[in-house]
Every structure is written in structure tokens, then in C-alpha cells.
Amino acid sequence: MRRILGHFPLWISHKRRVAAAAIALVALGTAASYATQSMIYDPEQRAWIRFDPSQARIYYRAHGTNPEVFRRQVVTFRTAERPGTIIIDGDKHFLYLVQPNFQAIRYGIGVGRDGFGWAGIVRIGHKVEWPTWTPPAEMVARDPNAARWANGMPGGPDNPLGARAMYLFEGNRDTIYRIHGTVEPWSIGLNISSGCIRLRNEDVTHLYERVQVGAKVIVLMQGAALYKGV
User: Fold this and answer.
1) Which residues participate in catalysis according to the annotation?
2) In whole angstroms, what is the distance from residue 106 CA to residue 95 CA?
3) N or C: which end of the chain has fewer CB within 10 A?
């Protein structure tokens, strides 16, 4: 699978991707479990707690929505990037759409699971409503369900890309990564995808209406989480 790291494309195997991720985590002084574990702040317990797929499903069934921290909201966000830029903080599971006057719309996201994280500066190549999902060859080879749709799954309510998709390009080349909706809204806040950035369908539709083709997208290196903007 093709990766973007900074401005430099790397063509490496899955084993080398995992090894490279592990080396990067050690270099950053971060435990290997950091890449596989999500944490959220529980205001009732006043503590950071683990947030895994089982807990995410339980919370979503009980509340019909995601934890408040992952719900769409406008936040103060200081950056030199121009309005319309997207900045993705995969460690904290946030996507920021930069707005004027040091503001941003913040969306909760799901990101790549262990070994599928990536970083770089890309752009929105094009946008599609109710997109067709065509799994990459690697996914077809390892996932029998994906193999059923090797020639493409039509857009619709059961499509893994959800209601909208924004295709991420490096120059004029499709990276194969997407910002898209999901049929698993409970999964927001988790490291769960094969590298794509997923939002709830209502959030990806909201973002889709506000972002332009050609918009700059900054995906931060794992371990480079934002504190209060950049």
C-alpha cells in the first residue's frame, strides 16, 4: 500500500509499515500501546478512561450518539493555515476545518488501526455523494467480505463509505485514502479503519458542504497530537 509521510511517498510492505511505526513510536518516547488504544475524558469520574470498540458500542446503544467530546463543535484554534484547510489529529481523533478569526469546526473521527496510520500533506482531489466503494487489492486478498465487492459496491445506506467521500490526492495521484462517512457511527473515536478518516454521516455531509476541491489537508504524524491548535 502506498503511504504518505511528510512530502515523501513510501512504497513498503505491511511488515515494514508496522516496523516503521514501532520505530517512530520508540523515537517519540511513546509506548507501543499508544497506537492501538483510545482514551477519553469522563467528566463524571474526572479521569481519562480507555475507550475500545466494546465500550463504544455500549455507549452508543445507551445514548444514541457518541461521547460529547466527539460531537461536532466550534472551538478556538490558532493556526497560520488559511480558512478551509483541514487538519487531522489522529491521536486525539479530531478533524479540524479551519475557520476565520482563529476558530475551527471540530469533528470526531475514526482513524487507522495499528499498522495503518499515516501522515502527510495532501489535498481534496474530488468529492462524491453516496460514493461507490471499491476495496483495494490488499483488502480484497485478506477480507472475504471485501472480495465480494472487488468490482465496486454501489453507493447507499449499507456502503462502508457512507453518505459522502472526499478523495485525498498527492499532486494528481490518488493516495487511495478518503475522508468519508460510515455505517458504524459508534466507531468514532477509535483506531479502526484501514487508513481512511471516517466521520458520522451527518458530520461528513456537514464537512462536504464546506470544503472545496483542492483544499489542503494536513494529517499529523502519530504522536504529534495538537494541544491547543498549532
Assistant:
1) 180, 196
2) 6
3) C
Whether the per-residue pLDDT at 214 is higher than 60: the answer is yes
Residue ranges of alpha helices (H) inside the chain are 14-27, 53-63, 137-142, 144-147, 201-208
Write out pLDDT tens, residues 139-149. 899 888 889 99
Cell of 16: 515494514
* Predicted TM-score (pTM) of this structure: 0.79
Task: Give CA 90 to chain center in angstroms.
Answer: 6
In the chain, the number of structural domains is: 1
Identify the DSSP state of 76: E
Question: Domain range for residue 212?
Answer: 2-219
Cell matching residue 180: 468519508
Query: pLDDT (tens digit, 9 = 90+) per residue, 14-27?
Result: 333 333 333 332 23
Mean pLDDT of the chain: 82
